[in-house]
């Protein structure tokens, strides 16, 4: 099970959102005749290129019930101004 403390959310190179998780586990069994140690490692990385109008400093992440929710506000796109022109003649 992934814990929110194990998940990293970072913005790198200005416009790349990286979500990663790395877990190392160790399981040990022993008795009078033997001793066994099993180690495993899991790694997860996903990268997404963010749009040009993303507000990088306002990226937010929340994790609840193993669901990661991202909030990425964007600046409003400036719409071209339409100006009426009189037609003479």
Automatic annotation (TrEMBL):
Domain SHSP residues, every copy: 1-89
Record-stated family: Belongs to the small heat shock protein (HSP20) family.
Transmembrane stretches, start-end: none
Cited SUPFAM superfamilies: HSP20-like chaperones
Acyltransferase found in the keyword field: no
Keyword Acyltransferase attributed: no
Xref: InterPro entries: A-crystallin/Hsp20_dom (IPR002068), HSP20-like_chaperone (IPR008978), Small_HSP (IPR031107)
Name under which the protein is recorded: SHSP domain-containing protein
Native source organism of the sequence: Malus domestica (Apple)
Keywords: Stress response
Top-rank taxon: Eukaryota
């Amino acid at each position: 099970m992934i814990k929110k403390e194990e998940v990293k959310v970072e913005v790198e190179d200005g416009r790349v959102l990286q979500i990663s998780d790395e877990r190392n586990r160790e399981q040990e069994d022993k008795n009078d005749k033997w001793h066994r140690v099993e180690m495993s490692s899991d790694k997860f990385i996903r990268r997404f290129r963010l749009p040009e109008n993303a507000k990088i400093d306002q990226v937010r992440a929340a994790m609840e019930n193993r669901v990661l929710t991202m909030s990425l506000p964007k600046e409003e796109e400036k719409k071209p101004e339409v100006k009426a022109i009189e037609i003479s003649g």
